Amino acid sequence: MFRISNHYVSKIVFTLLFVEVLVLLGAAYVGAAVRFMELGETSATVPHLDNFFTSAIAFTIAVIFSMSAMGMYQLDFDEGLRNPFLMKLMPSFVMGFVILTLVFYLAPDLYFGRGVLILVFAVGGAGILLARLIFFKTSEARFMRSRIMFLGGGPLAKECSDLATRNNRYHKYDIAGFIPIATEDLCVETSSLLKVRDGDSLVKLARQNNVEEIVVSVLNRRGGFPIKELLDCKLQGVKVTDAATFFERETCQIRVDSLQPSWLVFGGGFDQSFVRTFMKRCFDLACSVILLVLTLPIMLLAALAVWVEDRGTVFYSQERVGKDGKTFRVLKFRSMRVDAEKGGKPQWAAQNDPRVTRVGNFMRKTRIDELPQILNVLKGEMSFVGPRPERPYFVEQLIEVVPYYNVRHSIKPGITGWAQVRYGYGSSAEDALQKLQYDLYYVKNNSLFLDVLIMIDTLKVVLFRSGR
């Protein structure tokens, strides 16, 4: 994997994306060539071909965006080209067609004709199918894999190796073996241990086993820890990665159970600079105004539906904890019964919560209930993307039992967030821990690039009605 704006991106996914961009650009030119060859026309007799490259770019971006929103770049190698993929491809092209139609309406000079458009989409669909077929057939090839070994043989090494061997991971690994540490209990198979002879160095072992990366998966680094040999490995071109970074890279989480505080202090990320804050605020304001204009009719209908169902209040205001631990009132459409907390004691929201009304269930699935929070964003209390704000009652409890929980309050909470598109509703301290690990990843690596990815994933959640 490599990093774009601090966010880890799979080389496999990036390669597939790059290939499909070329396929779609090529499809635009092939479709146009076939169409105008049939008509005997050229760029001299078809004026709008002067903007054809821009039109091809618009077509490519529309389809790639639609495929991303449908989750087609969240790969599952076990699924391959089975029905779920085919069921996503057609809706992706339909969405791309709708987006492109809107672009042509706003910029008519980019329109390249109905006949060309049909051919371009047909060639593009065939090209994507062929590209995916070749990609999944070659995904097991050795050049798509990285060869690694683990320093350690204890529980942390076992957990890291299990993560590395998941079949549907975006990064394929060959595990050369494990080098046990005397101070740890052995938790891996003895057959997977590397034979270390007297005088063998880590560099020599890495060279003998064609290892590209050493993952340091040792909990206790005191006494006999080979720090000098690891430095030699790094100087000789062998990548050295600690377990915390390995987990962050492979799961897009920060694991708090095996995390050393120094990693947070001395590691990269946690950009809270003026430039980042200013860009994020501009992004929030632009998105809020656009979304408010586009969804105003939907919000009016939602307000009417909430009132008609039980004649109760339309909006729901609740105290939440924001940046720096300051509280504010979050605004939502009411999705639960009026007496949802008639006992007066706060309760966790859960999946299939019986307190949710029929209208509220639909709004939760489609995220319509969150739309009034646009006003919180405009007021500066929230951002569009960030950790979801929690109630003070639960925050006080979670700070006591979940390590580093307060770190999520170092930035503004968001309408949607990394944990929301990666994890479901939380109804316990364990769920809060899992969501915190995603939130910590976002706090550490937040950027405009990651914000855009989260918003695309949020669109996918809305489209598939898998609200979280």
Q: What separation lies between the terminal Cα atoms? A: 27 Å
The computed structural class is alpha/beta
- DSSP strand (E) fraction? 5-15%
Q: Name the overall outline.
A: globular
Separate helix tally: 16
The number of domains? 3
Flag low-confidence runs: 42-47
Q: Could you estimate the helical fraction of the residues in percent?
A: 40-55%
Largest sheet: 4 strands, parallel
Number of strands: 10
Going across the biggest sheet, name each strand in turn: 4-3-5-6
Mean pLDDT: 85
Question: Topology, please?
Answer:
Layout: E1 2-4, E2 7-9, H1 11-39, H2 52-69, H3 83-106, H4 114-138, E3 145-151, H5 155-164, E4 172-179, H6 202-208, E5 213-216, H7 227-235, E6 239-242, H8 243-251, H9 261-266, H10 274-310, E7 315-321, E8 327-333, H11 358-366, H12 374-378, E9 383-385, H13 392-401, E10 414-416, H14 418-422, H15 429-445, H16 448-463
Parallel strand pairs: 3-4, 3-5, 5-6, 9-10
Antiparallel strand pairs: 1-2, 7-8
Helix pairs in contact: 1-2, 1-4, 2-3, 5-8, 10-11
What does this structure look like?
Mean pLDDT is 85; it is low at 42-47. The chain has three domains: 2-138, no CATH class; 142-251, Rossmann fold; 274-463, no CATH class. 50% of the residues lie in helices and 10% in strands. The strands form four sheets. The chain has a four-stranded parallel β-sheet with strand order 4-3-5-6, sandwiched between helices. A two-stranded antiparallel sheet has the order 1-2. It has 468 residues and is of the alpha/beta class. The chain has 16 helices and ten strands. Helix 1 packs across helix 2 (52-69) and helix 1 runs antiparallel to helix 4 (114-138). It has helices at 11-39, 52-69, 83-106, 114-138, 155-164, 202-208, 227-235, 243-251, 261-266, 274-310, 358-366, 374-378, 392-401, 418-422, 429-445, 448-463; strands spanning 2-4, 7-9, 145-151, 172-179, 213-216, 239-242, 315-321, 327-333, 383-385, 414-416. It is globular and about 75 Å long. The longest helix has 37 residues, at 274-310.
